[in-house]
Every structure is written in C-alpha cells, then in structure tokens.
Design brief:
The structure is a single chain. By secondary structure, this protein is an alpha/beta fold. The protein folds into two domains: about 160 residues, Rossmann fold (3-Layer(aba) Sandwich); about 100 residues, ProC C-terminal domain-like fold (Orthogonal Bundle). About 50% of the residues lie in helices and about 15% in strands. An eight-stranded mixed beta sheet has the order 3-2-1-4-5-6-7-8, sandwiched between helices. The longest helix has 28 residues. It starts with a strand and ends with a helix. Catalyzes the reduction of 1-pyrroline-5-carboxylate (PCA) to L-proline. This is Pyrroline-5-carboxylate reductase. One of its GO terms (biological process) is L-proline biosynthetic process.
Amino acid sequence: MDKKVAIIGCGNLGIAILKGLLDSKYTAAENITVTRRNVEALSEFSREGVVVTTDNRSAVKNADLILVALKPHNILTVLQDLKQEFDPNRHILISLATGISIAQLGEASSTELSIFRAMPNTAAFVKESLTCICANTDNRQTLETVRQLFDGIGEIQFIEEELMEAATVLGACGIAYVLRFMRAMVQGGIQIGFSSKVASFIVNQTVNGASRLLIEKRAHPEEEIDKVTTPKGCTIEGLNEMEHNGFSSALIKGIVTSFEKIEK
C-alpha cells in the first residue's frame, strides 16, 4: 500500500501505532510523517526512514490519512489551526481523543472530510490492542483503509458513535481493571507461599490462558467456570467468598463510575 500517513502528536500511543504500521508494512517508512515537540524521542524512527518533524502543517500536506493522537483538551484547537490544509477529496481524519465527537471534529476541520474516531488500548504496544472505531462514512474502501491501519496493533470492532465512551471504559480503562485484578492475584499467591516472581509468572499465564479459552472456543465465561467448580471443591468455595465480599458488584460499579465520569 502506498498511502501516506501522518501521526500528529506522536506520544506513547502514537508510537505503538507507528510500530504497528512499520511491522505490518502498511506503507513504506518514508510515507509516514510523525510530529512531536520533542523530536529527539522519535530519533530511532527517523533512522528507519520515517519523517520526523515539529511541523503539523507540513505533515498534513504530505499525508492521505491523518491520525491525531493529541489530548482531548487541545485537539480541536490544533485542528482549527490546520483547517485550511484539509482536502475532503484526499484526506481521511482519525481522532484518538476521548469524548470529542465526530461533529466537533468536523466543525474544527471540515464537515466534508471522512472522519473516524478510534479507541485503541495500551496493549497496542504488544500488538494485542482492542481498537473500537466509528465513522461518518459507510464507504467500503475508506473503511477498509482505516481497518488495515489498525490491523497492525491488534483486533478491531466497528461500533456506533454513541457507544464510543462505553468502549473507552470497557476496552481502554479495562486494561487497568484487569491489571488490578491480576495484581491482587499475585498478592494472594505471595501470601500462600510463592515468590513475587513465580506468582507473577503463574498469574500472567493463567490469565492469558483464560482469555485464549474464551476467544478461541467462543465460549461464555460461566461455561468455562463450571468446568473447574466441582461440588464441595476449593474453587467454588473461593469464588463464593469473593462474591460475598462484592467482587463482581465492585467491578461493575467501577465500570459504571468510569462511564459516568466521561459522560459528565
């Protein structure tokens, strides 16, 4: 593919996507332009042929797909500054900003643009992100172009825009929820006799295995839980104790609280 890509504000998440683009050979390195105030942080990519600059305007001029990885509080200002550079006949705009609607993005740039919102998560760094995407277009070729861009960092789910905030909570914030659960498992493992290193290894692989079971078998969690909860066994006793102490309830409340925070 010879599409030219710009990543505006190439911070941690932008770097993960950049690595995915390079590894998947989505386009040649010289077709990618990335911007950041501190260009020194991107020097390794410059050596690979990626164009590294502080000039957002030139990045937009030299791109077909413009991926904006800026914080929500300044994305609209930056887009307004670049408004004259957008060409609806050429450009596809992709925003990674939480809580900024397609309508707001269009008003700041151009309402005639093909505009996408995408929400990857930090598993992008190991090419295991779940990226939820919505768009103001149903053009098959445009949708496929954007899908292929995110293919290099994991799996993709197209959703309605009204669900993007919920996707942020479940898919992006969700990484932190799972990690906190895993950390608690490690602490429990230490208490029953393992070193931190060994407990971490066991927990990491156990969680990985549980995830693969559900993904590859397309199974419901309860179906797999039933297979390890024998009558009067230690598993069901432990699960019931967790539920008596509000395990599922606390997790659901946390998800809803995060969602309400975004909604406000």
